[in-house]
Amino acid sequence: MVAFKLAYRNLLGAGLRTWLNVSVLSLAFVLIVFYNGMIDGWNRQSRNDTQDWEIGQGQYWHPDYDKYDVYTINEAHQPIDEQAQQEIDGGHLVPQLLQQATIYPQGRMQSILLRGIPPEQTLLKLPTDALNGDDDEAKVIIGKRMAKATKLQVGDQVLLRWRDRHGTFDARQVVVAQVFNCDVAEADQGQLYIDYQVMQQMMDFDNEATLLVSGSEVAGLAGWSFKSADFLLKDLDDLINSERISGRIIQLVLLMIALLAIFDTQILSIFRRKKEIGTYIALGLTRKQVVGIFTIEGGVHSILAALLGAAYGIPLFVWINTIGINFGSADMGITIAERVYPYYSWQLVLGSVLIVLVTSTIVSFIPARKIAYMSPTDALKGK
Amino acid sequence: MVKRIVVDDIIFQDMDNQIIQLEHLTKRFPVGNGFFTALTDINLSFGKGEFAGLVGPSGSGKTTLLNIIGSLDVPSEGKATVLGRSIAELSQKQAANMRNHHIGFIFQTYNLLPVYTVYENVEFALLLQNISAEERRKAVMQALEWVGLTDKEKSKPSMLSGGECQRVAIARSMVKRPKIVLADEPTANLDSKNSHHILQTMQKLNEELGVTFIFSTHDEKVMQYLKRQISLADGKVVADEQVELVSSQ
Lengths: 383, 249
Hints:
The structure holds two protein chains of two kinds. By secondary structure, chain A is of the alpha+beta class. Chain A has helices spanning about 1-15, 15-55, 70-75, 80-90, 145-150, 195-205, 230, 235-270, 275-280, 285-325, 345-370, 375-380; strands at about 60, 80, 95-105, 110-115, 140-145, 155-165, 170-180, 190-195, 210, 210-215, 225-230, 325, 340. Chain A is built from twelve helices and 13 strands. The two termini of chain A are about 30 Å apart. In chain B, helix 3 packs across helix 4 (about 135-145) and helix 5 packs parallel to helix 6. Residues about 1-15 of chain B have low confidence and may be disordered. Chain A: Keywords: Cell membrane, Membrane, Transmembrane, Transmembrane helix. Chain A: This is ABC transporter permease.
């Protein structure tokens, strides 16, 4: 406690130098928390959005279905058995039939993934009720990215061509019933949603599906391979983790700058305060205790930095959380909300404080070790 | 009779009279490829309550001798026994304990801690001991009263004159009621008036509290107050004499 008290007084006594170090360190601290908060916020929003718009709580796949292998898509479908149908009727599962198809917007040919989905489903946020209609017109819904890429708008007709289950090509005009705004790129880019029943008729399938989106895991659904939300979110997790790692490099550089300032101050301190070190020893401190005082002094920088960072960081973070960070409507091909709201968990804040505290204490200790080898008589003379 | 004082893990013997004994003490410092001999075959002893001075020109070994007595350094040869313990045999912790409890230092340049107030500077030594805040306050205020600085308790050293700084240093050395106070050229940076003032203060503390004061000095003003003068030249004791006190008034 005495060492903390001494360190605190010495730091305050050092005046501007202390506050410069503390300011730089607090900036590093705030930026580390902010950056990680952004990543966590993006992660949370993206996971939630992906679950809301695409994957639910998991999916039951046809055993041959592999979303990364287009050759599996056309053959990966099977009839929905009684048990699955009961779950569908109970609103716990949403069947989707997936087939490759081609559209010709403005005469250009574009491959798409045609997704048949029941209009009445409410498990996913997709506005599938727009697929309802009592006329002969086949309605489709598309995402804003798809609309942008194909220059399609609500009410536009577009030619859709597909191969039915016998391999026969067929085509018809479909109408864009709605363009939905969704942050999940995979649920949007190259996807065309159509009424599940209409698609069955088009393809000559009888109550078959490629996958079943689940609101919760259904025990013992035979013939289907369950893919958990974590499995389905792995790509997103990998992407976010790679962003986190590249962010770590920036944070490390920032932290290094701040720690370098502390290291430099410590070296200067030990050089300039030799007489003080000698006095401490003359007054009855052991060299280890003096090393401790100087180390704690460096470490206390981080505590002051955390306090200073909290003083301007908390209002800043609260404000940012109310307005969010605007990423615009720029299509980056990844799942990211137009506005990302950072998420600051106590683990993040505590972890950041600990990292800054530990690293600043280490860089303070390295130069302070010299004191242990200092002759007290030389130190008293300032040598 | 020998009283035994236990401080942490070490036992210092409080001898009735001889509290410092230096036997055939030699101190060498490495210089280049060879050695510089700062002290040669010193044989001295100091009793309780002495007011003695090591006098001699610069480089005569006064400060080196004080440093060894104060356990800040160890002899190269011979033996230095302080409060019944051989300095060379003390661990760092034991030596620090001895300095903290039994030895006060007064330096030529005061060596006050600049970021602390007068009160905090004096209190510092007591912070290392298990003394309650109330007792510390009492002891610090008494020490400041001895040196006449109770009105300056909240001042920082930078706000004090040289004489006042040295009086703070005296208070700091005395607040823990040490057995020995080592004063290294305490008046070297002071004018005549302040020198006499602090010497009278130390003389009074020596008489009232029975603390042993050992000075290192070549200041004539200090010599007027010494009851015993040990003259050093080139690291050797050339004279050791009891002195008739001349009035400092």
